[in-house]
Amino acid sequence: MAVSDRFLGQEDEAEGDFGISALFSDHHEVEKAAETVTSPVAEHADEFQRQEVLDDSTPISLLQATSLPTERFHSETDGYNLPQLYPGGESGSSSTKDQQKGFCGICAEKRQMSEMMRVSKTCPHSFCSNCISSHVSITIAGNQATVPCLELHCEHSVEFQSCVGILPRDVLDAWGSKLCEALIPIAHKFYCPFRDCSAMLVNDCENLVEECECPHCNRLFCVQCRVPWHSGVSCQEFQELNEDERDSEDIMLWKLAQNNKWARCPNCRFYVERTEGCPHMNCRCGYEFCYSCNLQWSDDHGGCSRS
């Protein structure tokens, strides 16, 4: 019994030691658990405090941003596509931005005010520079010196000075030339008859001029007839020719007929030559005429004095 009691006593002591060690072990685990639980709470508390500080400082940063120069503000916000800030810390509304744009009635689009322009100082209508440039180019290409306003029923015209900065150089030169031509009286100006030249010329000579050389293409032409020079044919004789008979080959044939004294049928304009007989001619077209006076033949025409 003593031995067993001793063993039992040892067991109780061991159990007591185990209980104490377990107690200390549990207390250590509780402390670790407490540290594990309280640590996130502290972190969240610090984060919450930092967020409050940031929230309090946000209006200040926006206010400072609005006071920065525009170039600096845009350079600092490149790539973020931020709305433009207006005084007061509010972003500009669409209605405010629309008020800063103009409306072009030709292309029916809203344009920046820098793209809009008036056609003249006296005309109240304004359009975008692209539409005005196209309108002027088309009008000048149609050989017109005056460019009307694009507004319907408007009597104003587009001014040359207002378009200097938007038109190509070749269009400006063509427009300037046409404006200069418009200042010359119609009675004093004419054009070179050669189609590959057509240069404008001014007749400022008081004397009657017939033969003239174009200073641009250096070819001769008749000032009175407005055609290439008809050598050997007077202006009166040339005017008597039909429109389809005034080419160089037709003139050569006409001169040959004059030299050989050929007659011409008044009806079909065909040349005939009499070798012998009376002046009564029967043309192949059926028309009868007098070879001497070139008039229609009649029964009492036999005694023509021009025979």
TrEMBL record:
Q: Name one GO biological process term.
A: protein ubiquitination
Record keyword Signal present: no
PROSITE patterns reported for this sequence: TRIAD, ZF_RING_1, ZF_RING_2
- Quickly give the catalysed reaction: [E2 ubiquitin-conjugating enzyme]-S-ubiquitinyl-L-cysteine + [acceptor protein]-L-lysine = [E2 ubiquitin-conjugating enzyme]-L-cysteine + [acceptor protein]-N(6)-ubiquitinyl-L-lysine
- Domain spans labelled RING-type: 100-307, 104-149
Q: Which InterPro entries match?
A: E3_UB_ligase_RBR (IPR031127), IBR_dom (IPR002867), TRIAD_supradom (IPR044066), Znf_C3HC4_RING-type (IPR018957), Znf_RING (IPR001841), Znf_RING/FYVE/PHD (IPR013083), Znf_RING_CS (IPR017907)
E.C. number? 2.3.2.31
Protein's pathway: Protein modification; protein ubiquitination
Pfam families given in the database record: IBR, zf-C3HC4
* UniProt keyword annotations, A-Z: Metal-binding, Repeat, Transferase, Ubl conjugation pathway, Zinc, Zinc-finger
What residue intervals traverse the membrane?
Answer: none
A molecular function (GO) held by this record is: ubiquitin protein ligase activity
Q: Which cofactors are reported in the record for this sequence?
A: Zn(2+)
Has the keyword Repeat been applied to this entry? yes
Biological function: Might act as an E3 ubiquitin-protein ligase, or as part of E3 complex, which accepts ubiquitin from specific E2 ubiquitin-conjugating enzymes and then transfers it to substrates.
The family line of this record is:
Belongs to the RBR family. Ariadne subfamily.
Q: Which named protein is this?
A: RBR-type E3 ubiquitin transferase
Q: What organism does this protein naturally occur in?
A: Trapa natans (Water chestnut)
